[in-house]
């Protein structure tokens, strides 16, 4: 029985945190909301230098060949800092190529995805909901035609992994013929969304992806859950910090029992819940895929619900200042909303869980 | 029990309708000239339909209080799309305060021009270190010759950039105990030393501002109430701040939109509204909405009889905030992918408009007395639980 | 616009309260839980003397010909005192005869129901749920055969109004042939439940009841809502009272901000909600039946949910003593559970509301 | 990360299984004679499977601490239906306290007989006016000659009627400050002056009692720790009170039953479990259950390495209570008509058994430190929010 992050995983989290602590400050993230061009790049190189890009990519293709849990622990840390950029989607795309590509495709793309020289994202839903493989309807022909919505950081992506009918997946490269990107006004300005239109666009099918399409989605669900856990935990820390400093009515507001209890109630929701994403990540590598899917659905549903509650409570607790743009508390709220509804709302995944549980 | 209006009130409604059909003939979407609006307001005021609580000699409609008539006027004016009273803290807060606590010359000088929209006011209460705890305000005013010289910083000042005057709580008696040291001053914003900076909100809006005051001057006589009596003067407003009808209308409209959303959005190949979990949730919200409606009716009934609505009145704001939070939670589940978006200039707003409500519902549990302060007030003043110096109610203890 | 109880209604509530304040103390109600024989009688005569039995019975049959709201206001007061006995079911039965009976049946039974000389109850469900007219399946023959469950205070009843297939209703008199009562162990010992078996039991059909069967159920829903409101309000009062008296850690527990906020949160749920049952009662007499049914369903669902929450909070707030039998706080909890599930759980009535609202 | 047990531990499991199959051959539903149980316990203790924290010379199993082995033992003994350690405050609270704070002669005198079940203890802490606030206890003990003479009243004393001894907090130093005036005394209940009265609970049960003490006597030496040191001695128990494994088992069983209920009960002509609102609700509960499970695993992992589980440990009780409340709410919706019933002697218990959980879940947020006290502890000791004398944590401040 050993259910905890390893010392190595924690040390790696610390080194990521050290980097982000300097590079990914609140003003820096706020600036990405206002920037004209996509904001991901500035953190990208730093993280890639630390080796994040290749964590779960097989060693023969330049990665570290580690497990999803190793990556999820990093995403937790990135979530603490509401780090901009398509870390999660990049990982999903890399898994799609690792699990679904030919050896030639793997050799062609994975080393550059590992080093971060190439950036990737995923294009899944075509309108309302429709995130899971069974919902993809874009025809799988020699070239692609149609549109995908809510594609994160597409402008910045060298590769876009596209979900196709029957749960197939194909890779489209930057600048491909007939590929058109339209920026969408994104609530979470640190994860910019695009509508991606394909017009007789050349694409390369990942031949084995059909069998593992759900697993690639599960990667996304687990990593969103990890991001949510990191973010929610940080919301508590920032709230505690503020409650210790802010004085009203002659005392720190953290002395008021109402504030204490609101934070205790939050702690009881957030703090023990790390294991949900740990287990889901662990199960991805060590359990039957159906069991892993079930755990991923539950982790995503539960933790992203917790995150929205935590970020709302944090803003309320800050009072008027919490409602200001400058303070940046809203960064966590907006990320929480992203994590909550990207790849499907929690109630959808609870319904999936119920079915997978055989209810 | 009678949910209808009396014959007297129905006659009044017909009178209003006749007035409106004669005097306000613009289409719903028309944009009448400011002069037309001003002239209409003046006429409606002379008829006693607007500014009913303001005496004629200050430009008001001067009518005996009648909450039901007030409701009928609000309903019919809204239905006709006719201009109502100028909104804002000037007409809603300053004017009643001057009528109650001001000197005669102050009323003559400020009331008419405020209700006609010439003087536009902002409120200078909150400061960076005094959110809930107004008694700790630090902006100082010193009487130098026949002028107050004011230095300090105000914050959360709504619409300050549109205002030309401010009413403010200023510490003029630094030696006095916390609440007793504040005075209620009127300040002309059109002078050097005033620096107004917009505060950007989490939803991108900028209704709020910081106002910096550096050696700002105002005549010695522009004080409402006695020196050091500002706290009490500012509290006299509380009874004028309510607009229940408006808040119920907002809840009704919010719920109707949410229902529309649930009809539009698909879930498992059918409208989400057919899902039993969604139906249960919306019916639960309908319960909360009807509670607000009938509580509102009870309060109207009691007030129209000159009775106090007591505890019910203290619960309105928290009920309203709670409802907003429940709606926010529900809408996030319903809007699905559009929750990832926000409004953008030039783009037609779809379901992502709900994200404004999602964020705005947070503001409603912060602004105008946080929910925690509301709970203290309800528990202590409403339920009679023992007061505790450490449980602030935003009130002098 | 006049949305409030009248001075007369309030005065009548006061006189009921005065009576119950003496007669229906906590020890007295506790005693009914432990009594071998049914407990209703002791409050019955008192209430009947006050005229409660005939409130809504037409004047020509010895009643006052008042409206459902007048009765509901009384039931609110009875709910404050967790008054034992079948007040609600008696009213439902009387309405069934008033609305569904022939003139001869009305003349035969209503005067005695008004005076309280006869006591009545209703037998509706045949197993799980099944409270509403569409769910009644007992065949409507010359005599009755079958069983009804969860019939309140049946042992004490002179008349039992029975729901039959097609929404028909019939009256069975005490001691009728083949009528058999089996006591059920009732959670709320002040409202004793029976299984009632009919074996070729003579019954008298109420010929017009079929058209108004739902209205008779609506009477029950509205009165349960009123009982719940009265009970919930009392839970707050008792909690406030206790919080003002109980001293821990050197101060009244009502001084602790956490306790204050728990009670404020309860007040905001309970206090403004009276109008739900007022309107539903008012609508019964003044609006189209479908509109009244909708209001009744919502009032029952909302207020009985509020009541369970309030009674649970009250017990928690009392600490250990709240969990003792002797204190009697559990009387409100158990009544809340009765009100919550008798005539159907809140989620059932919310689903009905949704359908009636045309959703 | 490895959710399996190490080879060493799996070997240990096989050893236990072999021991059990040899030494406990009763069927699950058999009712073995008390002597057989006693003999089995003795054997299991000698093998080091029971009372592992108690030295051999006091009759214990004396083994190095290993939470994983402890869990394996608990699992296998439960699976075989074999007797585990005697439950109760004697073995779970008094014995560890004596081992930590008692004198040698006290350990020799009391430990063996307690773990063998001959001495059955009850706990005398709470009093009518001291529920959460133990420091205000009033039961007095006076040293008269070589005996303590004790007068007062204890309450919420579980199973006092089965006990022959009590350990109690008694005020022996009336002049000392609140916490410093209490001593930890051992009392023989078999003497005049002891009056035990059952307290009936809201669910009809009577596990709790009031214990009245009138001139009750106990030897001067039956004090654990120094005079006035009783508070500290009683707190030393806290670390022994936990039994996470048991609580997770209970949550698992509770959820499985609830799921069974949702399968059995019909809603709209189909099992309630097919209703989307019910599915959503149960999946939400499943989330909470899995959170408890993994939090438990994390704590086991850290403790097995000698690390502290920190904040997580403080959250267990509140998590557990919250889960119980959510289950209660859900079950009330599911049991439908059977919620109107309660268990009765001689009647087969159906779905109305859920009403016991419905009521019992309230007890869990009261007993052993109310949820409000838990929140204070979490906020102050767990999150590091500033302490406040007015925010009690059940701890000396």
From TrEMBL, chains A, C:
Keyword Cell inner membrane: no
Signal peptide residue numbers: none
Domain Acyl-CoA dehydrogenase/oxidase C-terminal: 222-344
Family in the record: Belongs to the acyl-CoA dehydrogenase family.
UniProt keyword annotation of Ligase present: no
Keywords: FAD, Flavoprotein, Oxidoreductase
Cofactor: FAD
GO MF: acyl-CoA dehydrogenase activity; flavin adenine dinucleotide binding
Name of the protein in its database record: Acyl-CoA dehydrogenase
Domain Acyl-CoA dehydrogenase/oxidase N-terminal: 6-116
Source superkingdom: Bacteria
PANTHER family named in the record: ACYL-COA DEHYDROGENASE (PTHR43884), ACYL-COA DEHYDROGENASE FADE28 (PTHR43884:SF20)
TrEMBL record, chains B, D:
Cofactor names: FAD
GO CC terms: plasma membrane
Domain Acyl-CoA oxidase/dehydrogenase middle: 122-216
Pfam families assigned: Acyl-CoA_dh_1, Acyl-CoA_dh_M, Acyl-CoA_dh_N
Residue span(s) of domain Acyl-CoA dehydrogenase/oxidase N-terminal: 6-118
Domain Acyl-CoA dehydrogenase/oxidase C-terminal: 228-382
UniProt-recorded Gene Ontology molecular function terms: flavin adenine dinucleotide binding; oxidoreductase activity, acting on the CH-CH group of donors
Protein keywords: FAD, Flavoprotein, Oxidoreductase
Family: Belongs to the acyl-CoA dehydrogenase family.
UniProt xrefs under PANTHER family: ACYL-COA DEHYDROGENASE, ACYL-COA DEHYDROGENASE FADE29
Protein name: Acyl-CoA dehydrogenase
Organism: Noviherbaspirillum sedimenti
């Amino acid at each position: 029985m050993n259910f905890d992050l390893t010392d190595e995983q924690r040390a790696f989290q610390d080194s990521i945190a050290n980097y982000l602590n300097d590079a990914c400050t609140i003003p820096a993230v706020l600036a990405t909301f206002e920037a004209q061009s996509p904001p991901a790049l500035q953190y990208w190189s730093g993280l890639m230098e630390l080796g994040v890009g290749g964590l779960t990519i097989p060693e023969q293709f330049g990665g570290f060949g580690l497990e999803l849990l190793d990556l999820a622990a990093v995403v937790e840390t990135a979530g603490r800092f509401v780090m901009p950029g398509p870390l999660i989607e990049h990982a999903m795309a890399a898994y799609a190529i690792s699990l679904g590509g030919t050896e030639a495709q793997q050799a062609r793309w994975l080393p550059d995805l590992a080093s971060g020289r190439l950036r990737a994202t995923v294009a899944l839903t075509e309108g309302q909901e429709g995130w899971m493989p069974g919902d993809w309807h874009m025809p799988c022909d020699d070239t692609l035609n149609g549109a995908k919505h809510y594609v994160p950081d597409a402008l910045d992506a060298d590769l876009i992994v596209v979900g196709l009918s029957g749960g197939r997946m194909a890779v489209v490269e930057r600048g491909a013929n007939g590929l058109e990107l339209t920026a969408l006004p994104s609530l979470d300005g640190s994860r910019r969304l695009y509508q991606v239109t394909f017009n007789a666009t050349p694409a390369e099918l990942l031949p084995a992806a059909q069998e593992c399409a759900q697993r690639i989605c599960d990667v996304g669900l687990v990593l969103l859950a990890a991001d949510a856990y990191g973010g929610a935990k940080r919301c508590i820390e920032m709230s505690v910090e503020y409650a210790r400093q802010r004085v009203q009515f002659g005392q720190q507001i953290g002395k008021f029992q109402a504030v204490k209890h609101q934070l205790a109630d939050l702690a009881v929701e957030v703090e023990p819940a790390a294991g949900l994403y740990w287990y889901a990540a662990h199960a991805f590598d060590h359990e039957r895929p159906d069991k892993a899917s079930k755990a991923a659905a539950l982790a995503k549903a539960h933790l992203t619900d917790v995150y929205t509650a935590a970020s709302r409570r944090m803003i309320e607790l800050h009072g008027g200042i919490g409602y200001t743009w400058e303070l940046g508390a809203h960064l966590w709220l907006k990320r929480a909303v992203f994590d909550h509804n990207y790849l499907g709302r929690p109630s959808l995944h609870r319904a999936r869980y119920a079915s997978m549980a055989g209810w | 029990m009678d949910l209808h209006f009396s014959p007297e009130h129905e006659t009044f409604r017909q009178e209003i309708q006749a007035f409106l059909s004669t005097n306000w003939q613009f289409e719903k979407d028309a944009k009448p000239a400011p002069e037309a609006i001003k002239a209409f307001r003046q006429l409606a005021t002379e008829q006693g339909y607007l500014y009913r609580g303001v005496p004629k000699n200050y430009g008001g409609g001067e009518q005996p209080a009648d909450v039901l008539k007030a409701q009928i006027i609000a309903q019919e004016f809204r239905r006709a799309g006719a201009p109502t009273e100028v909104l804002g803290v000037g007409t809603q807060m300053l004017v009643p305060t001057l009528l109650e606590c001001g000197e005669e010359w102050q009323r003559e000088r400020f009331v008419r021009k405020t209700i006609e929209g010439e003087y536009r006011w902002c409120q200078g209460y909150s400061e960076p270190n005094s959110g809930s705890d107004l008694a700790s305000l630090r902006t100082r005013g010193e009487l130098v010759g026949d002028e107050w010289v004011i230095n300090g910083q105000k914050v959360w000042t709504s619409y300050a950039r549109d205002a030309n005057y401010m009413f403010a709580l200023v510490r003029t008696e630094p030696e006095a105990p916390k609440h007793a040291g504040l005075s209620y001053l009127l300040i002309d914003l059109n002078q050097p030393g005033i620096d107004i900076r917009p505060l950007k909100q989490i939803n991108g809006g900028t209704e709020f501002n910081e106002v910096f005051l550096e050696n700002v001057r105002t005549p010695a006589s522009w004080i409402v109430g006695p020196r050091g009596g500002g706290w009490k003067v500012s509290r006299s407003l509380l009874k004028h701040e309510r607009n229940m009808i408006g808040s119920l209308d907002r809840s009704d409209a919010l719920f109707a939109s949410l229902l529309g959303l649930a009809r539009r959005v698909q879930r498992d190949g059918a409208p989400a509204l057919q899902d039993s979990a969604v139906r249960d949730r919306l019916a639960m919200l309908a319960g909360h909405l009807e509670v607000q409606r009938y509580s509102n009716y009870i309060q109207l009934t009691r007030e129209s009889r000159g009775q106090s609505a007591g505890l019910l009145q203290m619960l309105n704001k928290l009920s309203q905030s709670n409802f907003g939070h429940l709606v926010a939670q529900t809408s996030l589940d319903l809007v699905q992918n559009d929750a990832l978006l926000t409004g953008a200039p030039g783009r037609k707003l779809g379901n992502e408009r709900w994200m404004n409500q999602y964020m705005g519902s947070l503001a409603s549990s912060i602004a105008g007395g946080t929910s925690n302060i509301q709970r203290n007030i309800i528990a202590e003043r409403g339920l009679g639980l023992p007061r505790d110096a450490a449980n602030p109610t935003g009130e002098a203890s």
